[in-house]
Design brief:
Distance between the termini of chain B: 33 Å
Strand content of chain A: 5-15%
Shape of chain A: elongated
Largest sheet of chain B: 4 strands, antiparallel
CATH superfamily of chain B: Ubiquitin Conjugating Enzyme
Order of helices and strands of chain B: HEEEEHHH
CATH topology of chain B: Ubiquitin Conjugating Enzyme
CATH class of chain B: Alpha Beta
Keywords (chain A): ATP-binding, Chromatin regulator, DNA damage, DNA repair, Helicase, Hydrolase, Metal-binding, Nucleotide-binding, Nucleus, Zinc, Zinc-finger
Structural class of chain B: alpha+beta
Family (chain A): Belongs to the SNF2/RAD54 helicase family. RAD16 subfamily.
Radius of gyration of chain B: 16 Å
CATH architecture of chain B: Roll
Strand order of the largest sheet of chain B: 1-2-3-4
GO biological process, one term (chain A): DNA repair
Domain Helicase ATP-binding (chain A): 523-722
Structural class of chain A: alpha/beta
Oligomer: heterodimer
Number of helices of chain A: 41
Number of helices of chain B: 4
Number of domains of chain B: 1
Helix content of chain A: 40-55%
Domain Helicase C-terminal (chain A): 962-1129
Low-confidence stretches of chain A: 1-231, 350-367, 391-434, 444-449, 561-586, 841-851, 861-870, 945-950, 1109-1113
Number of strands of chain B: 4
Chain lengths: 1129, 153
C-alpha cells in the first residue's frame, strides 16, 4: 500500500478528467495477454535478461511461501529463461489456444498502437494493476488472502529496499519479477500451461519495461514512492494473488450515492455485497466505498444481478478502482470504475472436476445464469460456441401479443391443453385432442423423401426387408454408433460453450448455456444420447425393423470406449478420468442385451415375431412377465432379448427404485414399443423407463405426439436428449411458445427431432418417387343422405331448441364458458342424424311392456335359485323393477358411471355387465360385488336395453335414412358375391345396438367389437371375423381397439358419423389399410344433408388448416367461437 | 399429465370424498399423483384411540377397483391388527375385497377396526397377546401411544 500525501490529490484530480479515457485503453491492453504472439520475438532477448534477477527473488520466496516445491520453481524459472526455445514447442502443443485467445481479444488489440504511442506517461501508474489487491469483503478465503497480502508487502519491502539507490530501471524490474515468480509458483500445478504462462508474463514485462523506461513514467513513479508514507488515498496496486485468476476487467459506470470530494482517480474502491439474508429489495444492491470516505455509490443493477450470486458462491471476487469521477460528487452522478473479476483457482484444480453451479440453489425454472451474464457483460465471447443457444432463440422478436387473453387464445388452439368446460365429456375431449396423421406429418416433417442408404440385414433375419426397412436399419445402426466415438470425445457437447478467461493460468471454462452449469472438464459429445424415435406410421413394420437391428447389432452393457478416448486433445486426461469413473459405476451392474418394454397386449406378438423372424438358436429370448420372472439380474442379463411390459417395469421401479431388477442391469439397448405409453413424464412408468441404464435407447411409436406437445417431452427425457430433457428449457422455449401460438416453438421442435426421428408414412416416396410401400388404393366417398320428412321435422325441432340455447350463450358472451353444454347440444343433434331414437326424450310415455315381462322372470328366477341363498324381499325387488320402469338409470357401483348394458343379479343388484364380469376370477361365475352371493353368468338378467332408448325400439323399429343407406350398401356387397367383408364404425355403441335390429331382421350375420370386450374376447372376435364365411359385417366402436389391431380381413369401411377430429377416422381406416391388405379399400362416410353433420365437415377442414398452421393468429383467436357458430347456422 | 388416464370412478370418488367427507375421516389426493391419498382418521370415541389423529396413506393400484387399495398407518398405533410398519390386517383389504367397496367404505372399516380390535386375527403377535392376557393394560398402552404419537400434530 502506498499512501499518497494530500497535496498530490489535487494534482491527480486535475489530471483525472483528461487521463481517464486513455487510461482505459491502456488498461484494457495490459490486463490481457493478448499480444504474446505479436511481440514476443523482438522482446525475447530482453526478457531473458530481465528475468534473471527474478531467480534470486524466487529463491527468497521459496523461503517465505511454505508449500511450494523448490524443484518445481526452479524448473519454472528455467522455463522462463529458456522460454524462447520452448515457445516453439508450446505453440505446437497449444496453438489452438493462442489463436482463440487472439480472437477473443481482437477488439482490444486494435487499440494497441494508440496505447503505445500516444499515452505512455499515463499508463505508467496503471501498469501494476495486473495484480489488484484482494479486497472484496465477502470473499471467504481471508486467510489465504491475508497471507498473500503479507507476502506481497514483504516483497514490496524487498523491492523497495533493494531498489534504494539503484537506478529506476532496475527498480521497475523487481516488482515485475515478483509477479513472475508468483505466477510460476502457481503454474507448477498446471504443467502443460507452464510455458504459455511464462510467455505471457515475460511479454507483459517487456512491454512494461519499455514503457517504464520512458522518462516521464519514471519520474512520476518516483514521486509516488516519495509520498508513499503520508496519504489517505488508497490507490496502490492490487497484489497478484495466486489463488485468484483474473476473469476479465472492464469499465463499469456506477452511480454515486454520496456528495462531496470523495473520490480521486485511481483510488481503490471496496465493494460491499448484500448478505443472503438481505431483504428482498436490498438483495441486488452492491455498494462501494473507499477507505477514506466510506460509501461512495452503488453498482448498476445489471452488474449487481450477475455479480451478487457469483460472489455469494465464494468462487468469484471483485476488485475495482475509480478511473473517472467528478471532482465534487453529487448524488446519482456517474462514476467510472475499472473493475476486475477473479475466479478462485480451486475450480481449476484437478481434484475438483465436479461441475459447479454458480447460481447456487436458484429455482430450476430460472433460465438466467450469472456466470454467462458476466461473460456477456465482459464481452468475453466463447471461443467455442454451443450449437444452439437460448439467446438466439430469444433474440427473435415475439410474434404474438397476447393482450391479456392468453387463456382464451390458448383454448382456441388446435391442440387444447386446458379445456375447462369440457370436463363432462372427457372421452370426447380426449379424442378431440388427438392429432391427425396428416397434421402429425406436417408437424414432424414426414413424407419428405428420405435419402438414406440401405443396410442389408444379417442372415439371421429370416424375412425379407423392404427397401425402406433396410433404410431404417441403416439409420438406426448409424444412430447407435453415434458420431464415431473418437470424434465425439473431441467434439464439444452441443449445449456447452467454452470460454477462456483473461488469466492465462486458468484452463478453459465450459458453461452449459441451457442449465448454467459450469465446469472445467471438457463436456464431450459422447454424453449425447444414442438412439432415437422410430416413428414410422402404423403398419410399416416397426417391429421387424427393430428385430433386424437387434440381430444386426448385438452388444452387452455399455461398450468400453476408453482406449479410443485417450487421444483427445487437451481434455484427454479428464475424459479418461470420467470414463474410468463411469466404468467403475457400470461394472458393478450386470451387462444385459436388449430390453424391450411393450404394452401387455403386444407381449405375445413380440415373442412370436422375434421367434419367427430370427434364425432358431440365434438369439435367446426371455419373457419377464407373470410367473416367468426372476429376481436375479444376472439371469435376465444372460439373454439377448428380454421382453417385459410397462406394468412390470413400473411395479419393479416402484418397489425397488434404482435397485429393481431392470435397473441393476446395464443394458446395451432399451426399446420402448408404443413409446407414447410413457407420454406423461411425471408418471412412475415414464420415470422408470428414464432411469434405465442403457447404451442405446429407442422409442417405437406411430404417434410420437398424441394429444399434446408434452408427449414428446417425455420421449426426449427417456432418450436423454439435452437440454430438452430439462423441463425449464422445454417449457420456456417450446411448450410455452407453442401454447401461445408462437411458431418458433414448433420450428425448434422440428429442428430437434430432425436428426432424432425417422418417420415415414405410406405416402412416403423413395428416391425414384415411388411410394415406399405399395398398398391397394383407397377409395373414399361421401354418401349423402336425405332425411325423411318425419325425421327432418324431428331434427328441426331439436335444432331450433338447441339454437335458442346457443344464441343465449352467444348473447351473454359465454360461449367458451358453456363449452360442455354446447357440446351436449351438438351431441344430441349429431345422434339425431344417425337415428332419432338415440335422442328420444326420457319423458316419453311409452309402455315398457318388456319390463313387466322382465319383472316376472326376475322374480321367478329369484325364487327358483333361492335354495340356500339370501332372498331379497319382494318389496325391494319391486322397487328395483319400478326404478327400471321409470327409466332411472342407476349408477354402476363399480365404474360409478351410468350403467352401460346393465344386468340384474338374482340378488337384485344392478351394475354394468362388463364391470361385473371383469370382477370375477372365472368367466362363468363369481361373487356379487355387493352382497358376495355366488352368481352364475347364466343367472344374470339383462336389463332391458330399451331403457337406453326410452322407447321400445324393437317393436317401433323404423329405419332412419342413414341406416337405410347403410343397409343398401351392405346388401349390394353381399349380392356381389365377392366375399368382401365390411366394418361399420360408429362412435356410439348405442347406435351399434340399434343397427343390430335391422341386421338381425334381414338376416345379415354380424360380429361386434367395442370397448366392453376384454382382451381375450377381442382376440376371439377378431379371429372369428377373419375366418368366418357367414358373418361378413363387424360393428365396431370408433374408440375401441387401439394398439396393433389388424383388420385387413375387411375391405369395406363405413364411417357412420363424422367425428370432430379427422384423426380418429384416419386411424380407423388405417387399421384396414395396412400391410396385408390385398383389395382396394372402399371407405364410405355418411353425412346427412342440411344438418350439423354437413357443417362439421367444414369444421374438420378448418381444423386441418389450423393444425397445419395455415390460419393467422387472428383467425385462431376467433376460431373456436366461429366454429361453433358455424355449426348452429 | 400423470392423472390424465385416471378412471372416472376415481375422479368421482375423490370429488365425493372432498365434497361430503365421512365424519372423522379426511382423505385428499396428493397433487402430483391422484392415486395417492393423504388420509387422517380421528380415533373413535370410547376407544383407546379417542382424541388421536391418525395419519394414513392410501394408494389406488392400477387395477383399482378390481384390486383393493393399499392402506397403511403412518402414525404409530398400538393395535393388535396393525403392525409396527402400519400395515393393517383387514379382510376387505385382502381376499374379501369387492369392487363395490370404495375408498370411503375402506376408511370407515378402518375406523371401525379402531373401535373393535380383533386380537384373534392378529397382525402384531405381541400386541395381540398383550390384548388377550391383560386387556386393561393393553388399552392403557394404546391410550399412551395415542397421547404420544397421535395427539395434535
Amino acid at each position: 500500500m502506498e499512501p499518497k500525501p494530500m497535496d498530490d490529490i489535487d494534482n491527480t484530480l486535475q489530471n483525472s478528467g483528461l487521463s481517464a479515457p486513455p487510461i482505459t485503453v491502456k488498461r484494457t491492453v495490459t490486463s490481457t495477454g493478448a499480444r504474446i504472439t505479436t511481440q514476443i520475438k523482438e522482446d525475447d532477448p530482453e526478457d531473458s535478461e530481465e528475468v534473471k534477477p527474478v531467480k534470486s527473488l524466487v529463491e527468497d520466496k521459496v523461503v517465505v511461501s511454505e508449500n511450494v516445491c523448490s524443484d518445481c520453481l526452479a524448473g519454472s524459472v528455467e522455463g522462463v529463461k529458456s522460454s524462447r526455445t520452448r515457445f516453439e514447442e508450446f505453440i505446437k502443443a497449444a496453438n489452438t489456444k493462442i489463436v482463440s485467445e487472439e480472437e477473443c481479444l481482437k477488439t482490444q488489440r486494435k487499440e494497441e498502437p494508440q496505447v503505445n504511442n500516444e499515452i505512455p506517461e499515463k499508463s505508467v501508474k496503471e501498469e501494476p494493476d495486473v495484480g489488484f489487491e484482494a479486497k472484496a469483503p465477502s470473499v471467504p478465503e481471508t486467510s489465504v488472502k491475508n497471507m498473500s497480502y503479507q507476502e506481497w508487502l514483504q516483497f514490496r519491502g524487498y523491492a523497495k529496499s533493494s531498489g534504494e539507490g539503484t537506478n529506476s530501471h532496475e527498480k521497475k524490474v523487481k516488482p515485475e519479477g515478483l509477479e513472475t515468480a508468483r505466477f510460476a509458483n502457481v503454474r507448477v500445478r498446471e504443467e502443460p500451461r507452464l510455458f504459455a504462462e511464462n510467455k505471457v508474463n515475460v511479454k507483459e514485462e517487456s512491454v512494461r519495461s519499455s514503457l517504464w523506461s520512458k522518462p516521464q513514467g519514471v519520474k512520476k513513479e518516483k514521486v509516488e514512492e516519495q509520498r508513499a508514507s503520508a496519504g489517505l488515498v488508497e490507490d496502490g496496486d492490487f497484489p497478484d494473488d495466486p489463488d485468484w485468476f483474473l476473469v476479465g476487467r472492464t469499465l463499469v459506470t456506477a452511480l454515486s450515492t454520496t456528495k462531496g470530494r470523495k473520490l480521486v482517480d485511481n483510488e481503490i474502491v471496496n465493494f460491499t455485497f448484500p448478505s443472503p439474508s438481505s431483504r428482498y429489495n436490498m438483495q441486488w444492491i452492491v455498494r462501494f466505498s473507499t477507505k477514506r470516505s466510506g460509501e461512495i455509490g452503488r453498482l448498476p443493477m445489471e452488474w449487481a444481478k450477475c455479480v451478487v450470486p457469483l460472489v455469494c458462491s465464494n468462487k468469484v471476487k471483485v476488485l475495482g478502482r475509480c478511473v473517472a469521477a467528478p471532482a465534487n460528487l453529487s448524488l446519482m452522478q456517474e462514476i467510472m470504475l475499472y473493475v476486475s473479476f477473479y475466479i478462485h483457482h480451486s475450480i481449476f484444480l484437478d481434484g475438483d472436476k465436479s461441475s459447479w453451479r454458480l447460481d447456487g440453489c436458484r429455482s430450476i425454472d430460472s433460465t438466467v445464469y450469472p456466470l454467462l451474464t458476466l461473460f456477456n457483460l465482459l464481452k468475453n465471447k466463447p471461443f467455442q460456441k454451443a450449437d444452439f443457444t437460448p439467446a438466439e432463440l430469444d433474440s427473435r422478436k415475439r410474434l404474438l401479443n397476447l393482450e391479456g387473453d392468453s387463456e382464451e387464445a390458448a383454448s382456441m388452439l388446435p391442440i387444447v391443453k386446458r379445456g375447462k368446460g369440457c370436463q363432462q365429456f372427457p372421452e370426447q375431449n380426449k379424442d378431440e385432442q388427438t392429432i391427425t396423421e396428416s397434421s402429425l406429418n406436417k408437424l414432424m416433417g414426414a413424407a419428405e423423401v428420405y435419402n438414406l442408404e440401405e443396410m442389408e440385414p444379417p442372415n439371421t433375419l429370416l424375412c425379407d426387408l423392404r427397401p425402406y426397412q433396410k433404410q431404417a436399419l441403416y439409420w438406426m445402426s448409424k444412430l447407435e454408433q453415434g458420431i464415431d466415438v473418437e470424434k465425439a470425445a473431441e467434439t464439444l457437447h452441443p449445449c456447452w460453450s467454452a470460454y477462456r478467461i483473461c488469466d492465462g493460468r486458468a484452463s478453459s471454462i465450459y458453461v452449459n448455456v441451457f442449465s448454467g452449469e459450469a465446469t472445467t472438464k471438457f463436456p464431450t459429445a459422447t454424453q449425447v444420447a444414442r438412439g432415437g424415435i422410430l416413428a414410422d406410421a402404423m403398419g410399416l413394420g416397426k417391429t421387424v425393423m427393430t428385430i433386424a437391428l437387434i440381430l444386426a447389432r448385438r452388444g452387452r452393457g455399455c461398450p468400453d470406449n476408453e482406449e479410443l478416448d485417450t487421444k483427445t486433445a487437451d481434455s484427454a486426461q479428464i475424459t479418461k478420468k470420467r470414463k474410468i469413473d463411469s466404468h467403475i459405476n457400470i461394472s458393478s451392474k450386470a451387462k444385459g442385451g436388449t430390453l424391450i418394454v411393450c404394452p401387455m397386449a403386444l407381449l405375445g406378438q413380440w415373442k412370436d415375431e422375434l421367434e419367427t423372424h430370427s434364425e432358431p438358436e440365434s438369439i435367446s429370448i426371455f419373457v419377464h412377465y407373470g410367473g416367468d420372472r426372476t429376481n436375479n439380474p444376472n439371469v435376465i442379463a444372460e439373454h439377448d432379448v428380454v421382453l417385459t411390459t410397462y406394468g412390470v417395469l413400473t411395479a419393479a421401479y416402484k418397489s425397488d427404485a434404482e435397485d429393481s431388477i431392470f435397473h441393476k442391469v446395464s443394458w446395451y439397448r432399451v426399446v420402448l414399443d408404443e413409446a407414447h405409453t410413457i407420454k406423461s413424464w411425471k408418471t412412475l412408468g415414464a420415470q422408470a423407463a428414464c432411469a434405465l441404464s442403457s447404451h442405446c435407447r429407442w422409442c417405437l411409436t406411430g404417434t410420437p405426439l398424441q394429444n399434446n406437445l408434452e408427449d414428446l417431452y417425455s420421449l426426449l427425457c427417456f432418450l436423454h436428449v439435452e437440454p430438452w430433457c430439462n423441463w425449464a428449457w422445454w417449457n420456456k422455449l417450446i411448450q410455452k411458445p407453442y401454447e401461445n401460438g408462437d411458431p418458433r416453438g414448433m420450428k425448434l421442435i422440428k429442428a430437434i427431432l430432425r436428426p432424432l426421428m425417422l418417420r415415414r408414412t405410406k405416402e412416403t416416396k423413395d428416391k425414384e418417387g415411388r411410394p415406399i410401400l405399395v398398398l391397394p388404393p383407397t377409395d373414399i366417398q361421401i354418401i349423402e343422405c336425405e332425411q325423411s320428412e318425419a325425421e327432418h321435422d324431428f331434427y328441426n325441432a331439436l335444432f331450433r331448441k338447441s339454437k335458442v340455447q346457443f344464441d343465449q350463450f352467444v348473447a351473454q358472451g359465454k360461449v367458451l364458458h358453456n363449452f360442455a353444454n354446447i357440446l351436449e347440444l351438438l351431441l344430441r343433434l349429431r345422434q339425431c342424424c344417425n337415428h332419432p331414437f338415440l335422442v328420444m326424450s326420457r319423458a316419453d310415455s311409452q309402455k315398457y311392456t318388456d319390463l313387466n315381462k322382465l319383472a316376472k322372470r326376475f322374480l321367478e328366477t329369484n325364487t327358483d335359485s333361492s335354495t340356500n341363498q339370501t332372498v331379497q324381499t319382494r318389496a325391494y325387488i319391486e322397487e328395483v323393477v319400478e326404478g327400471i320402469r321409470r327409466g332411472d338409470n342407476m349408477e354402476c357401483p363399480i365404474c360409478m358411471e351410468f350403467a352401460d348394458d346393465p344386468v340384474l343379479t338374482p340378488c337384485a343388484h344392478r351394475m354394468c355387465r362388463e364391470c361385473l364380469l371383469s370382477s370375477w376370477r372365472t368367466p362363468t361365475s363369481g361373487l356379487c360385488p355387493i352382497c358376495r352371493q355366488l352368481l352364475k353368468k347364466t343367472e344374470l338378467i339383462t336389463c332391458p336395453t330399451e331403457s337406453q332408448f326410452r322407447v321400445d325400439v324393437e317393436s317401433n323399429w323404423k329405419e332412419s335414412s342413414k341406416v337405410s343407406k347403410l343397409l343398401d350398401c351392405l346388401e349390394q356387397i353381399c349380392e356381389s358375391g365377392s366375399g368382401e367383408k365390411s366394418i361399420v364404425f360408429s362412435q356410439w355403441t348405442s347406435f351399434l345396438d340399434l343397427l343390430e335390429i335391422p341386421l338381425k331382421r334381414r338376416g345379415v350375420g354380424f360380429l361386434r367389437f367395442d370397448g366392453k370386450l376384454v382382451q381375450k374376447q377381442r382376440e376371439r372376435v377378431l379371429k372369428e371375423f377373419s375366418e368366418t364365411k357367414d358373418k361378413m359385417v363387424l360393428l365396431m366402436s370408433l374408440k375401441a381397439g387401439g394398439v396393433g389391431l389388424n383388420l385387413t380381413a375387411a375391405s369395406h369401411v363405413f364411417l357412420m358419423d363424422p367425428w370432430w377430429n379427422p384423426a380418429v377416422e384416419e386411424q380407423a381406416i388405417m387399421r384396414i389399410h395396412r400391410i396385408g391388405q390385398k383389395r382396394t379399400v372402399r371407405v364410405r362416410r355418411f353425412i346427412v344433408r342440411d344438418t350439423v353433420e354437413e357443417r362439421m365437415q367444414q369444421v374438420q377442414a378448418r381444423k386441418q388448416r389450423m393444425i397445419a398452421g395455415a390460419l393467422t393468429e387472428e383467425e385462431v383467436r376467433t376460431a373456436r367461437i366461429e366454429e361453433l357458430k358455424m355449426l348452429f347456422r | 399429465m400423470a392423472n390424465s388416464n385416471l378412471p372416472r370412478r376415481i375422479i368421482k370418488e375423490t370429488q365425493r370424498l372432498l365434497s361430503e367427507p365421512a365424519p372423522g375421516i379426511s382423505a385428499s389426493p396428493s397433487e402430483d399423483n391422484m392415486r395417492y391419498f393423504n388420509v387422517m382418521i380421528l380415533g373413535p370415541t370410547q376407544s383407546p384411540y379417542e382424541g388421536g389423529v391418525f395419519k394414513l396413506e392410501l394408494f389406488l393400484p392400477e387395477e383399482y377397483p378390481m384390486a383393493a387399495p393399499k392402506v397403511r398407518f403412518l402414525t404409530k398405533i398400538y393395535h393388535p391388527n396393525i403392525d409396527k410398519l402400519g400395515r393393517i390386517c383387514l379382510d376387505i383389504l385382502k381376499d374379501k375385497w369387492s369392487p363395490a367397496l370404495q375408498i370411503r367404505t375402506v376408511l370407515l372399516s378402518i375406523q371401525a377396526l379402531l373401535s373393535a380390535p380383533n386380537p384373534d386375527d392378529p397382525l402384531s403377535e405381541n400386541i395381540a397377546k398383550h390384548w388377550k392376557t391383560n386387556e386393561a393394560e393393553a388399552v392403557e398402552t394404546a391410550k399412551e401411544w395415542t397421547r404420544l404419537y397421535a395427539s395434535g400434530a
